[in-house]
C-alpha cells in the first residue's frame, strides 16, 4: 500500500491521537457516519489533511498534545474514572490538562506502576492479548509456597475463566508467615495474580506492579507521576507492536 503524504493522517489514527477513541472505536464512529472532515462525511481510509476541521457528532475535535505518564499508584486508589463507593481515583493524582486514562487497570488494593495516556491507539494496542505485553508483580503471599505450587503458577493455573498462560515466577524471599514472589504474566485478566496465588493455596497479602513491558517503576515515589522519557516511549511502542 502506498504511504499517504506526510501532511495527511488516516482518519482513524487522527481520532485515536486526539484521544477521542481507540483506533477500533474510531473505525466504528466512522462506519456509523458520525465523523466529518471539512464538512464531508468521513469514510474508512479517509485521510485528514493538515489544518482540516474534523467533527464527531457535529463537535470539532481538538488536536491534543499526546501525554504519556507513569504513576506509582498508592493502595486504596481506583483506576476507574468514577467509583460508586467514593474511593479516591488515580486520575485525581494527575496534574495535566489533557484527559488521560489508565492503560489497563490495577485493583484498588494493588500499588505500583500504572501508565496513563490520552493516546487511545497505543493504550488499545498495549492491552491487546495478541501482543502479550509482560507485567511484573511483587507479591507477598501468606504461607511458604513449595516447588509444586511454584511449578503450578509457572505452568498455568485453572481459574473460573480458564487456565492461565505460562508465567515466570521467582521466590525472592521467605519470611515468617509469608513469602515474597516476583510474578511476570502476559495476560491481563481481572485480579489475575491474586486469583492465581489463591488457587494454589497462597493468598496475596500485598501486591505491587514493578514493571510494565520494558518500563520499570524504579524510585518513583508513591503517589507521584512523571512523563515517560523518549526512549521509554519508543520501547513501549515497540512492545505494543509485538516487538
Ligand atoms: N493481578 C491482580 O490480582 N491485581 C492487579 O491489580 C493486577 C494483576
SSE blueprint:
Elements: E1 8-10, H1 11-17, H2 23-31, E2 35-37, E3 40-41, E4 47-49, E5 54-56, E6 59-60, E7 68-73, E8 101-102, E9 110-117, H3 120-127, E10 135-142, H4 147-155, E11 158-159, E12 162-163, E13 168-175, E14 178-185, H5 192-199, E15 204-212, E16 215-216, E17 225-227, H6 230-240
Parallel strand pairs: 9-15
Antiparallel strand pairs: 1-4, 2-3, 2-5, 5-6, 7-9, 7-17, 8-9, 10-14, 10-15, 11-12, 13-14, 15-16
Helix pairs in contact: 1-2, 3-6
Residues 106-107, 110, 191-194, 207 line the site of uracil.
Structural class by secondary-structure content: alpha+beta
- What's the overall geometry? elongated
The tally of helices reads 6
Biggest sheet features: 9 strands, mixed
Poorly predicted sequence stretches spanning 5 or more consecutive residues? 1-6
- CATH topology name of the largest domain, in short, is Alpha-Beta Plaits
Percentage of β-strand residues: 25-35%
Q: Provide the succession of SSEs.
A: EHHEEEEEEEEHEHEEEEHEEEH
Query: Could you tell me the mean pLDDT?
Result: 92
Oligomeric description of these chains:
single chain
CATH architecture of the largest domain: 2-Layer Sandwich
What is the name of the CATH class of the largest domain?
Answer: Alpha Beta
Distance between the termini: 22 Å
Radius of gyration: 21 Å
Helix percentage range: 10-25%
What is the CATH superfamily classification of the largest domain? Pseudouridine synthase I, catalytic domain, N-terminal subdomain
Which ligands are bound? uracil
Total count of strands = 17
